[in-house]
Structure formats: structure tokens, C-alpha cells
Amino acid sequence: MKRLIFLISLCLSLFLFAGCGNDDVTETAPQGDASAVGSMTDEAGGPFSESEYAKFLKDIPEITKITNPALNAGKEVKPEDVTKMVLNAAKELNWKEERFMYVYSQAMTVLSLEQLKQMESQMAASMDGLPEEQKKQMMASMTEQMGGQMESLKKQVDSQVPVSEQEIILSNIGNLYKALGIQQ
Question: Which of 50, 77, 147, 170 fits a disulfide with 143 by CB distance 3.0 to 4.6 angstroms?
Fold first, then answer.
């Protein structure tokens, strides 16, 4: 149960952090509008490459080190202040602000979906050994609670993140977890 609460909290945190930054970059394209995805990607400088994503994975732990002391100082930090800290840290690592936030947003969007899938699998696995009737009730409840979120997030990923970027992120998902300090 503690792990479930942790996973739900983690997903919520990821959703919040994915929303930080330039709204133009994190907007979701209208459903089925491939030109809108292309437009958002073009505005951010085009799709990222494997080498750019590798730089992102290398740099994100440094940004976390820079921002965490202020976040953990016991005082309330406004979301816009966190964004400023992240952008300043990204600049120090030779990123253009918009480009860093674009790569970050894409990675967090895909990671959020993967976390939700993982949580769903863990919840289903935790039901093994339950009486069949109780299992059916819990599955129905889980589908009701998470089904809409999963579908919505999947649509967001498909409309916001080009397939080439999804492939790069997913092929490096273990490295993303590690870079962010998240246990799989």
C-alpha cells in the first residue's frame, strides 16, 4: 500500500513538473492534427536527436543538484521560481531555455505515461491471490479510476510527442529513471 501511495504521488509530481515552463511548448495539439504537432516541434527547433537526448540525460542530474538545495530548504518555493532555477541551470549547461524545456517536457510526458502503465501493472499484480469476485470488483474500480487518465495521457503523448522522440525516450527509459533518481 505504501508503494502504491508513493507511485501515485510520483505520477502527480511528474505531471506537475511536466507542466513547468513555456506553455507554447507543452500545449497539446488538437486530436489527429499532425500539422499542429509539427508546428510545436518546429517552434522548439525541430525534433530532438539521440545525441541531444543523451546530452539531456547527462545534464538533468546536474540541474537537479542545482535546484534541490533551494527546494529542500524548508521554505515554500513558487512554481515560477522553480522554473527560473531550472532555466538558469540549463543555461549554465549551454542549453537554450526553450530547447531544454521542450526536451524536458517531451521526456516527462512520455515518462508520465510509462509510470501510469507501471502503476496499473503493479496494482493488477497486487490482486493476485484474491478471491475472483473481489478481484473483479477491484479491476472494475481500477479501470474506472485510471482508464480515463491512461487514455487521456496516451492521447497527449500521441498528439504532442513525435514518434521519433517517443522511440528515443522509450529506448532510454532506464537511463531517464536513473538520471532523475527514480527507482524503477
Answer: 147
Length reported for the chain: 184
26 to each of 12, 15, 69, 134, 136, how far by Cα in Å? 16, 11, 26, 40, 37
All three cell numbers of 53, joined, read: 537526448
pLDDT in tens, 33-88: 444 555 666 666 779 999 999 999 999 999 888 777 766 677 777 888 888 888 99
Mention every residue, 6+ apart, whose C-beta is less than 8 A from residue 3.
Answer: 122
Angle at 9 between CA 6 and CA 14, to 5 degrees: 125
Taking the model in full, what pTM does it have? 0.69
Nearest to 26 by CA among 111, 146, 107: 107
What residue type is 44 in one-letter code?
A: A
Q: Could you give the angle at the alpha carbon of 123 between the alpha carbons of 118 and 129, nearest 5°?
A: 135
Tracing cell 533551494 back to the chain, one arrives at 70
**Whole-number Å distance between alpha carbons of 81 and 71:** 10
Contacts of 174 (CB under 8 A, 6+ apart): 184
Q: What stretch of H or E contains 25?
A: helix 23-26
